[in-house]
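fyi for ur records
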Amino acid sequence: MPLIPEEPQIHESAQGPRATPASSRTAPTPRPVPGPRPAAPSRPGRPGPVRPTPPAQRMPRETAGAPTPGPNAPATPSTSTSQPQIQLIPASAEGALDAAEEAVDLLLDSGRKPGEVLVITTGDAHPWAAHELSFGEESYWAQHDAGDDVFYADASALNRAAARPVVVVAVNGGADETAATALPLALGRAGALLIVCGDPQRINALLGAGV
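which gave:
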């Protein structure tokens, strides 16, 4: 079955957070992004004068006051208990990365550890990934292997990326073939929840009968 967007929310059994639509996509009543997000603040834990200040990376947040999971089912529930749940967050190609960032914010606010989240982009790379790759793939993938922070990767790197409980895919452009290949691979990497941010019509067209 094609993915059918409903009231945008992230629900993962008894503990998943609720996603909200990004400000740049068309939605009936968009909620603001939880807290200001600077364009490129310093990433904690990376001192030294040699490197310029990298774009932001995710760190754990206080969970007090975080939204509690709602009783509603996800937009497209898994057909098997061994399969991750799938949540579609409608967004334009230009707003898909913002929607993914907002979903990550909510995941961390609800108690997810940063190392449990993998973010994939089908178009332009996330600024953090582009910055870290400028220092070489060895250093970049060492951070992936450490598994203690949110990791951002291009769709072409999915074959190398390890599975994580939550995978967020931002369909933020790129060739149709790239997105069509990335979505099934991302599903295979998601242990509990796959969140897809992008244009529903395009995503359903790429998936055909669905994931």
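The chain has a mean pLDDT of 75. thats all i got for now
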